[in-house]
Specification:
The chain is built from four helices and five strands; from the N terminus they run βαβαβαβαβ. By secondary structure, it is α/β, with parallel strands linked by helices. Helix 1 links the parallel strand 1 and strand 2. The longest helix is centred in the middle third of the chain and has 9 residues. The radius of gyration is 13 Å and the shape is globular. The model has no long low-confidence stretch (mean pLDDT 90).
C-alpha cells in the first residue's frame, strides 16, 4: 500500500482540510490561535511530512528546508504574497513554494 502524503498546517485552513483528507492526504493542523514556534515546525518537517501549509506569521528559511531535505516536497502559503518564505533557500533546496490568496 502506498504511503499517504503527509501535510502539516500551521493554522486551521478551513474547508481545505476536509478536501485534502477526502483526497487521501494525512493532515495535521496546529490547534492554537498563535503561530507555532519555529522549533515545532522544524520537528514536524523532520518527522517526514511531504507538505507544509503556512501563513505570513511563519518564517520559512534554510533551517526548515534543511530539516526536510529528504521528504519535504512543497511549501504552500495561505495569505497574500509569501514574504515569509525565503525564496532563495526554497530554490536552493528545490522545494516549490506556492501561495493562495485569502480574502
Amino acid at each position: 500500500m502506498a504511503r499517504k502524503f503527509r501535510v502539516f498546517a500551521t493554522c486551521d485552513i478551513g474547508d481545505a482540510i476536509d478536501l485534502l483528507r477526502s483526497r487521501g492526504y494525512e493532515v495535521e493542523v496546529y490547534p492554537q490561535p498563535v503561530a507555532p514556534p519555529k522549533s515545532l515546525i522544524i520537528d514536524k518537517v523532520k518527522s517526514g511530512i511531504d507538505g507544509l501549509i503556512t501563513t505570513l506569521r511563519d518564517p520559512i528559511d534554510a533551517e526548515i528546508f534543511e530539516a526536510g531535505k529528504s521528504t519535504l516536497k512543497v511549501v504552500a502559503q495561505i495569505a497574500v504574497g509569501f514574504d515569509n518564505i525565503n525564496r532563495a533557500d526554497a530554490n536552493r533546496y528545490r522545494i516549490p513554494s506556492l501561495t493562495r490568496q485569502t480574502s
